[in-house]
Backbone:
């Protein structure tokens, strides 16, 4: 898989409205949990989802949770009612969430995000306190392991 930063850079160049959440956000805060996917919370408008599709088009995205591996073929009409997109691409998994458990919808997530400088430019990442809250709400073993690291990082920086 290409570097996750390259994948996020594609979204940035197409002006997709998103916030990095999940494991990659934990890494950007200094965590060491390994992740091979990108989780983003994004605005689920037709215009934004069509920009997302354009950013990923040549990576052959398909819906990874459908048995027939349906390709990502969005139209404005097909965007209506979507809440999440779970995609597999040539570069790996991209999960696009309309809301984050424990935080809320895109507007709430964006409000609790910070700006981080990456090689392609600035992007938004869920803030440390909100990321801890979201991972606690998920409650999966690997999320709780990440919470322990993130709380230690928070203690070091305070």
Residues:
């Amino acid at each position: 898989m290409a570097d996750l930063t390259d994948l996020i850079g594609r979204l940035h160049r197409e002006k997709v409205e998103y916030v990095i959440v999940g494991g990659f956000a934990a890494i950007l805060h200094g965590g060491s949990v390994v992740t091979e996917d990108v989780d983003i919370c994004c605005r689920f408008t037709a215009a934004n989802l069509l920009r997302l599709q354009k950013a990923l088009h040549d990576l052959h995205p398909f819906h990874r949770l459908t048995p027939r591996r349906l390709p990502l073929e969005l139209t404005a009409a097909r965007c209506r009612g979507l809440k999440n997109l779970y995609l597999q691409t040539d570069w790996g998994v991209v999960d696009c969430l309309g809301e984050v458990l424990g935080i809320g919808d895109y507007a709430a997530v964006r409000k609790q995000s910070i700006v981080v400088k990456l090689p392609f430019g600035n992007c938004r990442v869920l803030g440390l306190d909100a990321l801890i809250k979201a991972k606690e709400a998920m409650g999966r073993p690997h999320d709780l392991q990440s919470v322990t690291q993130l709380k230690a990082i928070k203690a070091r920086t305070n």
